[in-house]
Structure formats: structure tokens, C-alpha cells
Specification:
3 helices
Length: 196
């Protein structure tokens, strides 16, 4: 009769707490290193949370500043944009001269980025700063949160990657030590059997 397979907690316990007559001291040290690496990865989660909080505060402030300074206006394209290039990038953008009206009623002209194939006379929404110059759209609250979460996740994954590489490096080094020890023992055993 076969026994039921071990559950993952039992297998994990045996991995981090090796026992038996064939276990060597470095096996126990390797198991302890694995436990320390796991604990450090778990401890890095709150640190990633602090990082997310700090980045979110800075990005939220930047978003508020940009939303207060930037205004959306309508620009009239003054020249045809180039045609789409077959086999080119999926999003093709070109700069063309355009004319737009500032909130105070004065007109301003200059280059704006438009999708390739835009015709002269097309009206497009653009964002301008306090000086009336075209700028990218202001950062939204959702974008600020997304950036902060991305930075926090990348920071935590960086810690996990470093810990994983350290555990793997130690494992490979100990594998060499184990192989050398086994080779010495086999050599000793074979010398004993040959009568030397």
C-alpha cells in the first residue's frame, strides 16, 4: 500500500529543517540561509510600501501642479501632416505648424505633434502651459498612483532578485563542496577495498 504524498508545508519544513544521518553541516547552513532570505523578502514588503507612499506623495504633488498650470485648448493644423509609412511604427506622429487661442484671447502659433495623415484645417485638442507653449497632458491621480505602485513593485522585485541570486550562488558553491567531499569519500572507500 502506498502512502499519501506529502503536503507542501511538510515538504517545505523538510527543506528548511533537514535531518537524518546523511545531512552535513553545510546542508543545515544552506537551509538557514533559505529561511533568512524568505524572511528578508517578507520584511521588504513594508519597505516597498514606504517607497510607494513617498513616490505617490511626490507624483501627486506634481500632478496637482501640472493640472493647475496646464490648460486644454483647440489647435488648428496649418499644414498637411505626412502620410503613414507602410511597415513603420504602429503609432506614427509628426510635427506640423498649428494655431491656437490662449485663454486670454490672444493667438499663438508653433509646431505641435499630430498623428501622421492629419489634414490641414483639422482641429485638435492640445495642452498648453502658463506661457502658452504646447506641453504633454498633465499627470492624472491614477497615473501618479500607477507610477508609485510600479516603483514599489520593482523595488521589492529587485530585493527578491538579489536574495534569489545570493541563495543560488551559495547553493552552487556548496554543491561544489559536496561533490568534492563525495569524491574524497569514494576515493577513501575504493582505497580501503583494494587493500591499500
Amino acid at each position: 500500500m502506498t502512502s499519501a504524498p506529502e503536503s507542501w508545508p511538510v515538504r517545505f519544513w523538510r527543506l528548511i529543517h533537514p535531518g537524518g544521518p546523511l545531512v552535513r553541516p553545510w546542508d543545515r547552513w544552506e537551509a538557514r540561509l533559505l529561511v533568512v532570505a524568505i524572511l528578508l523578502a517578507v520584511a521588504a514588503v513594508p519597505l516597498a510600501g514606504v517607497l510607494v507612499s513617498g513616490v505617490y506623495a511626490r507624483q501627486s504633488e506634481l500632478a496637482r501642479e501640472q493640472q493647475a498650470d496646464r490648460t486644454q485648448v483647440t489647435a488648428v493644423v496649418l499644414a498637411d501632416a505626412g502620410a503613414f509609412v507602410a511597415g513603420g511604427p504602429a503609432v506614427q506622429v509628426t510635427e506640423v505648424p498649428a494655431l491656437w487661442r490662449l485663454p486670454d484671447g490672444t493667438e499663438r502659433s508653433g509646431p505641435v505633434s499630430v498623428p501622421a495623415g492629419t489634414d490641414q484645417g483639422t482641429r485638435l485638442p492640445i495642452w498648453i502651459d502658463g506661457a502658452g507653449e504646447p506641453v504633454p497632458p498633465p499627470l492624472s491621480a491614477f497615473s501618479a498612483l500607477s507610477i508609485a505602485l510600479g516603483v514599489g513593485l520593482l523595488g521589492w522585485l529587485g530585493v527578491v532578485l538579489v536574495l534569489t541570486l545570493a541563495v543560488l550562488a551559495v547553493h552552487l558553491a556548496l554543491d561544489r563542496v559536496r561533490a568534492a567531499a563525495w569524491a574524497r569519500e569514494w576515493e577513501t572507500l575504493s582505497q580501503g577495498r583494494s587493500g591499500r
